[in-house]
Amino acid sequence: MMYEILEKLELNKDVDLFKIKAPLVAKNTKPGNFVIVRVDKLGERIPLTIVESDSESITIISQKVGFSTKLLSKKEKGDFIEDVVGPLGEAIKIKNIKNLIAIAGGVGAAPLYPQLKSYHSSGTKIDLIIGAKDKEHLLLMDKFAEVCENIFVTTDDGSVGRKGFVTEVLKERLKDKSYDFSITIGPLIMMKNVLLINKDYNLPTDVSLNPIMIDGTGMCGNCRVSINGKNHFACVEGPDFSAEGIDFDELISRQRYYKDKEHVCNLRLGESDD
Amino acid sequence: MIKRTIMPVLDPSIRNTSFSEVAQGYSLNQVKIEASRCLDCKNPRCVTACPVNIDIPRFIKLILEDRFRDAYCTIYSDNILPAVCGRVCPQEKQCEGACVLGVKFEPVAIGALERYLGDYSLEHNVFRQEIIIDNGKKVAIIGSGPAGLACAAQIRRMGYSTDVYEALHEFGGVLKYGIPEFRLPKSIVDTEIDRLKSLGINFYKNVIIGKTLTIEQLFNELNYQAIFIGSGAGLPSSLGIKGENLNGVYYANEFLTRVNLMKANNFPFSATPIKVGETVAVVGGGNVAMDAARTAKRLGAKKVIIIYRRDMESLPARLEEIHHADEEGIDFMLLLNPVEIIGENYEVKSVKCQRMVLGEPDESGRRKPIPIEEYETIDINNLIVAIGQSPNPIIKKSTPNLEVDKWGCIKVNDYQTSIPGVFAGGDIVTGAATVILAMGAGKTAAFNIDKYIKTL
Q1: How many Å lie between the alpha carbon of A134 and the closest alpha carbon of chain B?
Q2: Are A220 and B269 within 8 A, CB to CB?
Q3: What is the residue range of B290's domain?
Q4: Nearest residue on chain A to B390, alpha-carbon basis
């Protein structure tokens, strides 16, 4: 059995959206779940968040960061993906929150969206700070507009919104307004810095982690994360965790462990490393 | 008495760069000689010592009569994976351990004979066509490892429509992700599983029971009359010491899965990478530790060390595996227990170990290691943790009324769990054990499932 791509949208030059036919995965999917995808018979197993699902299909968003995501980006509508397994991870547990501040960085907007959608439908008021490289790399803006009260945009180059980082806007927001909860998803270094700011305001913060995984069922232990000195497996206990106590520096280094191998692998795609 | 025939093996110098199978198997001539050593005892202790009670004297007699097909079928009726079990069973503790010849001489090499017949059948595509009359009832099997496969075969033979659900993208469970190619070629696993497909068993990959479908959904929406859980011991045990999350530290499960299932040894042709430095330490003394050590050597490690807290005699691994590891130049550092993994920039650099002495025998009958105030630090590039696995908790998590013990093993009574119609067997019940014990459990559970469904 293979998994057909029903729809492909190039969201920008680095990020694609795929709607994949996978009724059995879709059946039990809840917000916060992810899938493990293997593009072809020689492929790696890579985790990707389920952004949306209906009875027949799931939607994933993938950024071309490594060999396998680049390989995935070469697939078109009507093509097939070798393996899609899920739904994996713990679904989000909606907390009773009045005012939520959400912070998205880059492709982190994809896993953030299903969470905000759930919070919105349970009556939470949401302010979103969303940052990206430039205008083109801002994701899912239409969808966020439907579920957020206010959206604050930052870009690295200032092509839209404020030039700079989400953390600068966050500091201002927290001075102005009182929130009772925060969710942040993006690059590890961004989440680490957001947590540092939120701590000053005693603002509890959730993050979603995306470490390297193989099986996604708690078998291999590759995705282990140190939280307050204790080991957790992101694939089965996560991907969402309370940010307090997470060893982000360890995670950052674990995320990079195979980076030098990427170069060798990319030669297969006929590309040099970028 | 003729001496036991020695199994030809691949030269150790070739092995260090190759994933080809080490044990080469007997020639026809060797098979005949070895079979002729069987005394054909009146009360064959080997049969009782076999977890699935294969009629060993009978298949050996058939070998001597050149009736290889019949000899194969004799095994197959009790054991659906002869080519696998002939390779990975701990025969020295089972059939061969009980062989009368072993008292004064050396036991008959029953495992090697079984392997020959398994391979013979696969090569010549000879097997007995089985006629199965469908009874219109459905059973779901969770996991396509040894327990699940054995249960599936047995339950299918009784006429049940049988669906096997596998979480990974390939079938075989631990036979695929755990046991390395040089001990068990994956093509053999695939061919033996294909034979089961020909019995009419349906196999579904990428279905994680507890996630993709729940036990409740299997009953209520898919209308299975009974379910067998054989999801194995897929949770790695941790050392619980400082430095375990440093880069370069692998759990054996991850290390072996990257190579066995994901074929990292063929990187970049296969997209999954693995990193092996000059010196690799493996903590543990079981078969998994030997597999990890020998795999590391093949991936280019110059020095591979097994660190084990007891002595050589207490190593739980099969003698054959220890012997092969030794031949391949694996070093054994014994009576040492890691207390800290030391790193630099989040990458492992060395492991600090505490010296142990052996005290009085513990509940396992082995002398208990006692730490003394002496330490040794070993410079390493990788550390592989191979100190055991416990049951995978995914099914339990989504099935609150499924009772488990404090180690997470599913509680059973005659293979029946706390939920009516849900049976379990193999490592998920016993904790990590052997392929054949799991197969024995799966097979016996099938009879109990049949009994149960007949009472409905």
Answers
A1: 31
A2: no
A3: 238-387
A4: A219
Q: pLDDT 10s per residue in chain A (274 long)?
A: 799 999 999 999 999 999 999 999 999 999 999 999 999 999 999 999 999 999 999 999 999 988 899 999 999 999 999 999 999 999 999 999 999 999 999 999 999 999 999 999 999 999 999 999 999 999 999 999 999 999 999 999 999 999 999 999 999 999 999 999 999 999 999 999 999 999 999 999 999 999 999 999 999 999 999 999 899 999 999 999 999 999 999 999 999 999 888 777 676 666 544 4
Note whether B7 contacts A: Cβ–Cβ < 8 A.
no
B119 and B17: one domain?
yes
The answer to whether residues B265 and B380 belong to one domain is: yes
What count of CB pairs under 8 Å joins A to B? 128
**A24 CB-contact burial (10 Å; exposed 0-12 / middle 13-18 / buried 19+):** middle
- Global ipTM: 0.93
Give the CATH number of the domain where residue B73 resides: 1.10.1060.10
List of chain B residues whose C-beta atoms are within 8 Å of the C-beta of residue A44: 262, 271-272
B167-192 b/e with 16+ CB inside 10 Å = b? bbbbbbbbbbbbbbbbbbbbebbebb
In a domain, A42, yes or no: yes
Name the residue among B154, B182, B421 with its Cα closest to residue B298. B182
What is the distance in angstroms between the Cα of A1 and the nearest Cα belonging to chain B? 8
Stretch 288-347 of chain B: residues touching chain A, C-beta under 8 Å? 345-347
A82 touches chain B (CB under 8 A): yes
Indicate the SS3 state at residue B358. Answer: strand
In a domain, B404, yes or no: yes
Q: Do A217 and B251 touch (CB under 8 A)?
A: no
Please enumerate in sequence order all residues whose Cβ is within 8 A of that of A89, keeping only pairs 6 or more positions apart, or say none: A32, A33, A34, A216, A234, A235, A236, A238, A239, A240
Q: Which of A88, A111, A140 is the last residue of a domain?
A: A88
Give backbone dihedrals phi and psi of B104, rounded to 5 degrees, phi first: -100, -35
Q: How many domains does chain A have?
A: 2
Residue B323 lies in a domain: yes
Residue A229 belongs to a domain: no
Q: Which two tokens stand for residue B146?
A: 């040894």
**Same-domain pairing of B174 and B266:** no
Cβ-contact A32, A116 below 8 angstroms: no
Interface probe for A, chosen from B163, B166, B208 (most Cβ of A below 10 Å), is B208
Nearest CB neighbour to B392, from listed A27, A44, A219: A219
Please answer whether residues B291 and B284 qualify as being in contact, where contact means their C-beta atoms are separated by less than 8 angstroms.
no
Of B169, B207, B273, the CB nearest to A261: B273
B283 and B327 share one domain? yes
- Asked if residue B98 and residue B65 are part of one domain, the reply reads yes
DSSP B261: T
Count of helix runs (H) and strand runs (E) in chain A: 9, 16
Q: From the CB of residue B354, how many other CB atoms can be counted at a distance below 10 Å?
A: 18
Tell me, yes or no, if B392 comes closer than 8 A to chain A by beta carbon: yes
User: Is there a single domain that holds both residue B248 and residue B377?
Assistant: yes
> Nearest CB to B394: which of A24, A71, A236?
A236
Give how far Cα B53 sits from Cα of B39, B59, B117, B425, Å: 18, 12, 17, 17
For residue B129, is it within any domain? no
Nearest chain B Cα distance for residue A78, angstroms: 21
Question: How far is A165 from chain B, CA to nearest CA, in Å?
Answer: 27
Q: Is B447 part of the contact surface with chain A (CB cutoff 8 Å)?
A: no
- What's the domain count of chain B? 3
In a shared domain, residues B215 and B111:
no
Give a yes or no: residue B312 inside a domain. Answer: yes
pTM across the whole model = 0.94
Phi-psi region of A202 (alpha: psi -120 to 50; beta: other; left: phi over 0): left
Give the residue among B82, B394, B389 at the shortest CA–CA distance from B229: B394
Residue B176 sits in the same domain as residue B275 = no
Q: Which of B158, B169, B163 is nearest to B227 (CA)?
A: B163
